[in-house]
Structures are given as C-alpha cells and as structure tokens.
Amino acid sequence: MFKAKTLVCLVLLGLALAACRPNASIEPTPSAGLPEPTLVAVSDTPAPTPTPTSLPAAALVNGEAIPLSYYQNEVLRYRASFTEGEALPTDPEIQTTVLNSLVDQLLLAQQAREGGFTFTDADVQQRIDALLAQLGSGSALTDWMQINYYDDAEFRYALKLSTEAAWQRDEIINAVPGSVEQVRARQIFAQTLAGAERALASLNSGASFDELAWQYSPETGGELGWFPRGYLLFPDIEAAAFLLAPGEHSGIIQTEIGYHIIQVKERSDAHPLSTDARLSLQTQALAQWLEARRSEAQIEQVLP
C-alpha cells in the first residue's frame, strides 16, 4: 500500500491483489512435495477477524478495529521500504501516512463486503497455496514473512483485507467511462505579459491563431490535444477552454509558468479518453470516493 519495494519481490508474485475478482480467483494448486512453512500452515480454527474487543486497536473504523500490532508492523515495513541514503520522513509523518492508508484500506474493504464481495478463509488458503507453488519453496515465504514482520494470523489478515480493498477500488475506477466530454485546444504561450499582449493584439487585428501559436511554440505549435474536465494542471486554462466554442479564443490567462491564450479547435460530448487522461480521472474518482466515505464514517483513533 506504500512504496512496497520489499513486498514486490515475493508477496505480489501470484497474488495479483490489484486485479482480484470473485470469478478470477486462483484455483488450488497441489503442493505435494513442498515443505509446508510453519507460519502459513492451515490451522483447524481459522484466525478470527480482529474486533474492538478481541485485540488492542490502533483505530476503529465504523466499529471495526485496525489491530495495533498490524499498524505497528506496517510502520516497520514502511520504514524498511526506504533505501539507504534515501530521506526518511519523520516519525509523526510515517505514523500519519501509515494510519491514513490503513483507514482507507479498511473503508474500501468494508464497502466491498457491503457490495456482496466475499473472500473466505478458504479463499485465503487457496491464494497461499498458489503462492507456495509458484515460489517452489515453503521456506522462502516463511523467511520473507519473518524478515517483514508477519506472523501467520497477520499475513492472512493482510491478504484478506488487501483483496477486499482491491476489489472495491476496481469497482470505483472501472466506473469511470471510456468516453467523456472533451475539448481539443491549442495555445499561444508567452513567458512575459508584454509578449502575450502583442499576440492578443495581433489576433484582434486578424492574425492567424495557428501561425502565431507556431511562432511562440516552434516545437509543438501550442497543441494541447484533447482533454476532459479535471485533467489539466492549470484549472484556469481548462475552465476557459470549456467556455469557448470551436474557433473562439480566450483573453490572456496568467499561470505560475507564464501567460496563455487558448483557442478551442474541436469539442465532443463523448470523446474517447487517452490512457493517461483516464488514469487521471480514475485517480480522482478514488480520492473523491475516499474523501466522501471518510466524511460519513465513524473513525476513532485509539493511539495516543
């Protein structure tokens, strides 16, 4: 959930948490001949889901506990994800980052359950069996778990929670349509106000926008391409573009990098999103969902 440099090497191998779906679960893989690691052995009684009364908690989210030990070990794992010489955040910054991430993960998992997604203890064991088969050695997983501060119960808890959260995350981001309202625009960009004023005066005197755009930006001709609402780095430019009809141009718009005059070339109510634009809108959709969910949730921090 963080930089996860150490997690990538083994745990994500075969888990595919980000893309898990009820109809895409990993089938059990026979593991005969493989040494069964002590830390992931099947027990007769599955580890119970932590509750506010069964384990010390770092926080309560809608009455469900984030186990204190899980939070503490996540702090250790987050610290370990930084390479030697890389700037390490302060302890309060690390603690805040970790706790916020765990709260978000639990909110996603809770919504997944409400939405009908189930990931049982048997499913967890299937995923572990598949991982063991891919690793080819039970001791490899055992060693990795010990190095990364996991025991059997916590590893299973993390796997279940991550899978639930990933399912709900995919539900949110996949709801972003592939085609939305967009405009195609280009700009005349000047680093000084005087330069922008000269360009605007020329436009008002009948000069070609295209020719001026190439003069001011010889490498790109000022082409901004197609973009949806909420995509550009400078909201004032985006807002101006969506107010213009094709062929119209704006006045001078100042941003932190300079001065812009925008012309809309085309617009569409449903233009296909570029890969980058759709990823940006999906990221926004997830952030907005979490913000709304947090505002409605009962979140109690138990840590001092």
Can you put this structure into words, describing what you see?
The chain has helices at residues 5-10, 68-80, 91-114, 121-135, 138-147, 152-174, 193-204, 209-216, 235-243, 275-296, and strands spanning 57-61, 64-67, 179-190, 223-228, 253-255, 258-272, 299-301. With 304 residues, the protein is of the alpha+beta class. The strands form two sheets. A four-stranded antiparallel sheet has the order 4-3-6-5. The chain contains ten helices and seven strands. Helix 6 (152-174) crosses helix 10 (275-296). The protein has two domains: 5-174, Porin chaperone SurA, peptide-binding domain (Triger factor/SurA peptide-binding fold), CATH 1.10.4030.10; 179-272, Chitinase A, domain 3 (Roll).
List segments where confidence is low: pLDDT < 50 over at least 5 consecutive residues.
1-48
Instruction: Using the alpha-carbon principal axes, give the shape.
Output: elongated
Main beta sheet strand tally, sense and closure: 4 strands, antiparallel
Could you report the average pLDDT, rounded to the nearest whole number? Answer: 85
The radius of gyration computed from the alpha-carbon positions, rounded to a whole number of angstroms, is 26 Å
Could you give the order of the helices and strands? HEEHHHHHEHHEHEEHE
Number of strands: 7
Strand order of the largest sheet: 4-3-6-5
Oligomer: single chain
Helix proportion of residues, in percent?
40-55%
**What is the structural class?**
alpha+beta
Distance between the termini: 24 Å
CATH homologous superfamily grouping of the largest domain: Porin chaperone SurA, peptide-binding domain
